[in-house]
Every structure is written in C-alpha cells, then in structure tokens.
C-alpha cells in the first residue's frame, strides 16, 4: 500500500509513524512546501523569549526519525493537484500514485481587514517557522509593540517581549476579557490583574478603526484615542488551508474547514483529513467547530492512520476543547464550554466558583476553579482552573468527566491520591464539586 501524506505538521509525522507501526511494508511519502519539518509550534514563543536556546532545540522529529522508519520526506515540494479518479497527486511537477492519502494542510494566520494595513512591521506566528524567523529578526530592533489578540499566542508573545525589556506593550482584543474563547470574565479577571501588574496595558472590548505607518511607527486608531508602537503583532486565529481540497472537489464544512466523517474520511473515502484543516465538532452538543491545537493534530493523525490501515476501526468522537497555558506565572486551564458559550448553545447550566489550596505548610498556592454543569442531567459541560500549580492534572480529570458526561455528584465520590507535599486530603476539585452539587439539586431532587 502506498500512503501519501500532504503537509508537514506534527499530525503528519504522527500519522506516518502509526502507519509504519501497523504496516511494515507500506510505502509512505510526506510532501511539504516547507524547507524543514519536525518543530513543535507551541514552543515558538519560548524560543523567541530565550527559554529554549535555539530553533534546532525545538525540533521533536529529526531526519533520523524518518530515515529509521523508511518514510520519504519531500521538502520544498508543494502538492498542486489531486486527481481523485486516478488516485494520483501532482507535487513539484511530478506525479505520484496513492492508495490512501491524508491531508494535513494546516492553517494560515489570519489578519483582520483593518483599514490602513500596508505589511510593514506587521507580524504573525504560525506553524511554519518562516513567520517566527521573520519576527525573531525584528525583535532586537525595537522596544514597543501593539499585540492584537488577547488569546494564548498574544499573551505568550507579550510575555516574551516583556522579558526582552519592551515598554510599552499594548494588548488589544475585541472580546471583553483575555482568553475569551476559554475563560469567562470572572475567571479571566484574575489573569488580567497579573498582566496589568507586569506593566502591560490591556485594551479590551475595542474595535480598531485603523492602523497606519507614520514617522517610523505604527499608529493605531481606536474610538477614543490613538497610540503608537514600533510594530503590530497579530494573534487573531488562523484560517484552515483548504484550497487544494477545493480544487480536488472535496466537501468543505460549515466552518470553512474540510468536512470529515467519524473516521476522519473526507467526501472521498480514500482521502482523510487531520489537524488544523479539518472540521471538528464538540462532544457536548455535536456542533461543528474549528479546534486548532497541537494535541488535536497528534490525536487525529493517529486515528486517521489506524483507520486507513485497519479499515475504519476507530471512530473519532470529537473534542472537549482541553486547553492549558502558562503565562506570567499563572497556569490557566479550561475544558468544554465557558458558561457564556453553554448558554449560547441553548444549555440550561449552573455554575460555581471555588478557591482551594494545597497545604500552605508545603508551599501550596491558591487554586481557583469554576465548574459548569447542565441543570437537567448534572453532567459537567465546562471547567476553568487558574493557579500557579497543579492545573494540568485537574484539567485532564475534568476532560474525562466532560467527555463521559459524568454527573457532578458521581464525580465528587471518586477517590483521589494524597501525600502532604503533593496534594490535599480533600482535593480542590472535591471542594469545588461541593459548591456545585447543591445548586444542581432541585426542591424534589435527590443525590
């Protein structure tokens, strides 16, 4: 069997590795228009900051990885056409037959159509290192920045620039709070206080009316003021790359990403799509969405590879949107819907917010937890955790609860491990559930 994988992201490498594990004889080709593959995109802000010393250190998959597995990588080779009837693709002007194909086309950073943009001193980051290398060259030349987008990438870039001595740093967003996709305003306020304490100016719930170049500066025009910065960095999300799929006649979903079924097959059963370019769906309501995270690329790459080789044995159930970031000393994690999103999806939900801690005698830090559950079934549909420690473990447990629709009262009864320096005999999550469960019980309800 010949498997052609189009794209050079982590999902492609993961898929190729799984295909090789399951089929020792398969011929595997990866085609990418990049000059290098194998870096971990999530580490880009940490290289810019200096926490990771070089781009080379950010590569998880190196040349030896592919050579040892007999995977052929075609660098600087763009796939321009897929002829589905012939099961043939054209890459770098040459034709390649395939039995099965996987599209890992990624996404391109999106810059909003703000009047006055001219391309000068306007930067983005994406999974392709070409964006990061261009931005890296600019950082030492300047001392002030305006960051458009208060999501994970925007805040990580703000932290990197702060470490480089930048001042002022402006962070702007059309949403009313930072990390607005995964945090409600009441939880985001804790993070915002920390950001402001660092001397960064947050400008939220704002529409930028224009950005122009003037006197060697970028001038941002807001409804009530103007501001100057040496450059503008955009962290406004990314659009899935679908042009190749469109040319091949594959179905595009309602979100603008490539439509797939539960086995991650496109509208052509011999072509699968994974990662940032595929249309995802949430496990709570089944509504379509984009979910462009490294974990999603790795997971869907593995699932598609198994189905491709073994014959659609592993259905993909969707995502619970698990997320975590470390920024300005805080670990911020979330899973499922925010309370606002749950209500927008028509769910009748109840929420509670609790602050707990590990034993302070052992250096415990406050852990702020917000839980959101359906009033009818008591199943958790979302959670948010902000602390200086222990957030990832809480989120991973809550992700299982959301995925399996475990009622809050049942989750509260599950035992947890304990050792004084590592946790609490009465875990913070249990304390949070104690706040939530009584709110879920109606006058006639029973636990």
Outline of this structure?
With about 450 residues, this protein is α/β, with parallel strands linked by helices. It has helices at about 10-20, 45-50, 65-70, 130-140, 150-165, 185-195, 245, 295-310, 340-345, 390-405, 410, 430-440, and strands spanning about 1-5, 25-30, 70-75, 80-85, 90, 95, 100-105, 105-110, 120-125, 145-150, 170, 200-205, 210-215, 215-220, 225-230, 230-235, 240, 270-275, 280, 290, 325, 330-335, 350-355, 365-375, 380-385.
Shape: globular
Count of discrete structural domains? 3
Number of helices: 12
Task: Bin the helical content.
Answer: 25-40%
What low-confidence regions span 5 or more consecutive residues with pLDDT below 50? Answer: 443-447
Commentary on this structure:
The structure is a single chain. With 447 residues, the protein is of the alpha/beta class. The chain is globular, with a radius of gyration of 23 Å. The longest helix is centred in the last third of the chain and has 17 residues, at 294-310. The protein folds into 3 domains: 2-108 and 238-310, FAD/NAD(P)-binding domain (3-Layer(bba) Sandwich), CATH 3.50.50.60; 111-234, FAD/NAD(P)-binding domain; 323-440, FAD/NAD-linked reductase, C-terminal dimerisation domain (Enolase-like, domain 1, 2-Layer Sandwich). It has a 5-stranded parallel β-sheet with strand order 3-2-1-7-18. It is 26% helix and 25% strand.
List the defining traits of the structure above:
FAD/NAD(P)-binding domain; globular; alpha/beta; Enolase-like, domain 1; disordered C terminus; 25% strand; 3 domains; five-stranded parallel β-sheet; 447 residues
């Amino acid at each position: 069997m010949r498997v052609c994988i189009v794209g050079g992201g982590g999902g492609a490498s993961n898929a190729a590795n799984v295909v090789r594990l399951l089929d020792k004889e398969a011929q595997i080709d990866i085609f990418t228009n990049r000059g290098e593959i194998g870096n971990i995109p999530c580490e880009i802000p940490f290289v810019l900051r200096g926490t990771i010393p070089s781009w080379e250190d950010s590569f998880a998959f190196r040349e030896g990885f592919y050579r040892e597995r007999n995977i052929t990588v075609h660098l600087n080779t763009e796939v321009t056409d897929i002829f589905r009837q012939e099961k043939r693709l054209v890459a770098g002007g040459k034709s390649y037959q395939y039995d099965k194909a996987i599209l890992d086309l990624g996404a391109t950073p999106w810059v909003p159509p703000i009047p006055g943009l001219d391309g000068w001193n306007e930067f983005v980051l994406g999974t392709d290192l070409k964006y990061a290398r261009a931005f890296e060259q600019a950082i030492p030349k300047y001392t002030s920045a305006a960051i458009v987008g208060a999501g994970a990438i925007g805040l990580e870039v703000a932290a990197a620039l702060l470490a480089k001595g930048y001042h002022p740093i402006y962070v702007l967003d059309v949403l009313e709070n930072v990390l607005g996709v995964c945090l409600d305003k009441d939880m985001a306020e804790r993070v915002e206080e920390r950001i402001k304490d660092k001397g960064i100016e947050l400008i939220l719930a704002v529409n930028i009316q224009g950005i122009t170049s003037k006197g060697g500066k970028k001038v941002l025009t807001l409804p009530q003021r103007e501001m100057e910065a040496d450059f503008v960095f955009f962290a406004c999300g990314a659009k899935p790359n679908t042009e190749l799929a469109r040319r091949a006649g594959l179905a595009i979903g309602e979100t603008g990403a490539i439509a797939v079924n539960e086995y991650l097959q496109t509208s052509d059963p011999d072509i699968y799509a994974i990662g940032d370019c595929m249309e995802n769906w949430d496990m709570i309501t089944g509504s379509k969405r984009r979910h462009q995270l490294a974990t999603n690329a790795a997971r869907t790459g593995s699932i598609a590879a198994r189905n491709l080789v073994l014959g659609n044995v592993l259905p993909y159930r969707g995502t619970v949107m698990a997320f975590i970031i470390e920024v300005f000393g805080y670990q911020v994690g979330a899973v499922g819907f925010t309370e606002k999103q749950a209500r927008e999806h028509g769910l009748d939900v109840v929420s509670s917010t609790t602050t707990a801690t590990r034993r302070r005698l052992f250096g415990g830090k406050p852990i702020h937890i917000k839980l959101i559950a359906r009033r009818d079934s008591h199943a958790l549909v979302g959670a948010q955790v902000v602390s200086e420690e222990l957030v990832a473990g809480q989120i991973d447990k809550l992700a299982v609860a959301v995925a399996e629709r475990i009622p809050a009262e049942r989750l509260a009864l599950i035992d947890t491990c304990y050792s004084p320096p590592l946790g609490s005999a009465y875990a913070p999550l249990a304390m949070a559930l104690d706040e939530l469960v009584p709110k879920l019980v109606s006058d006639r309800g029973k636990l």
